[in-house]
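Problem 3 from the worked examples.
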Amino acid sequence: MDIALSLSPGHNRTDLESLFDWLQAEKELRGRVSWKEAPPKPGEMGGMAEFILVAAGSGGFLSVLATSVQTWLAQPRRSNIKIRARRDDGVEIEVDAQNMTDERVQELLRKLSEKPE
């Protein structure tokens, strides 16, 4: 299972690069984080969409990812950033710095770890 992380519209590439660097620095995520660019879909205008792809593993991988995202969002100047996490089977959740509580982290973990129907 892969998890794609992207930022809500209105955020610049620098914010996403910062999250990418942050996740790469996590010992448990090393080697699982990659930068991706997807061309616009047919009929869409604009540049290429950029996102971070995280290859999921076993054990406490999702917990490390969720905690790392929570800590990154808590950093100064990130109070209005929203992150969208999407599994390769389409399950998606959005979190932001203003509602990234421990309960929200648990919801993120639960939703991302649910087995596909």
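Problem 4, a separate protein:
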Amino acid sequence: MDNLTPKEIVAYLDKYVIGQKDAKKTIAVALRNRYRRMQLDEDMQHDVVPKNILMIGSTGVGKTEIARRLAKMMNLPFIKVEASKYTEVGFVGRDVESMVRDLATTSLSLVRAEENEKNKEKIAIYVENKIIEKLLPPLPAGASEQKKADYEHAFAKMQEKFEKGELDNLMVKVEVPDHPMLSDDGLPPQMIQVQESIVKVLGAYGKKGTEKELSVKDAKKILETEASQELLDEEQLKTLALEKVEKGGIIFLDEIDKIAVSSSAQSRQDPSKEGVQRDLLPIVEGSTVQTKLGMVKTDHILFIAAGAFHLSKPSDLIPELQGRFPLRVELNSLDEETLYRILTEPKHSLIKQYQALMKVEGVTLTFEEEALRAIAHYSLTANEKTEDIGARRLHTVVEKVLEEISFSADEYTGQEISVSKTLIDEKIGSVVEDEDATRYIL
């Protein structure tokens, strides 16, 4: 899906995100330009740098949802990070280079999954053979032709049973790897290097693994990983992942407004915020970062930044960083009609989700048209009276309305429950009228 046209990208996003046409178009063109660049000659490719995007809009208007859907849609390395989680070099906390390391890890996982899919049949055969060999007594050396024929017949019979799932409950002994599971999340670069050294040392001792008795069903998962390691060349995977991350990586940098220093608060400036911006600048401009894949060049990674900018403005970012986000798009606030559409139109809208959840209990949940309009109306009113949290308010309102029905769902098995405007008014109306109640309940 990495060569979709801008119209196809927008059409895909339209299934899940209502409105925000400008943001969708800008991102669609930026993504298409990644594909266009790869069709150019190598010399020109180097000079065509990605046009990074700054999305400006209140919380709950669709910034994160667009990013989340892009992550599912794109066959490219993609991560979403919060700028506010990073600290200036020299302070305790995550350094900005860790986002590139995270992206590299994502790229490796993506490439590994792609290669596993390509080798799906080989992996399945490997797993099947391994399990049957563990279940059948080994064929002794120098066995007669008759013994060999009997073994092959028994093996074929076991294959039939394996394919039908008839062996799933049998127990077999498999080797479970003892690789140390360590994370670099939240660690400064010096500690990450120490951790990688520990992994190498422990890996030398823990490579053999521990033999455990598991059901065939559970053993399949362990052996699939083993097959993947046997069949795939780890160094080749890293090379492919490195190429993928450098040519098509995307980093969604949320809450970038949290590291901006408001010009109206000069006396209360947080020096570490500007420090994070200065640390971020070389990565966005193009630098080289040490990762598990090797040295990753960030020159052609696409950065999409987003922020509400309530207490600060984009111009409060340092000028150099502003210049690295030439494409700016403002997302619209949500009106009542948009909230109604968000509630009903997306492929897996909130209403469809609740209906599916109740269906599990054997309850058919329906909503009157007036009830849906009332939910949108009360959500907008609550946003206006208190903090505007956009579409997230719909979750709060719907949960409050359906709380009792959801709690007692087992009593309504086989029945149809219709949610009326009267029920909405009863559950939400008085709460929304009281501003203090709205703040604490909705």
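Solution to problem 4. The domain at 6-108+240-330 is CATH 3.40.50.300 (Rossmann fold). The CA atoms of residues 152 and 158 lie 10 Å apart.
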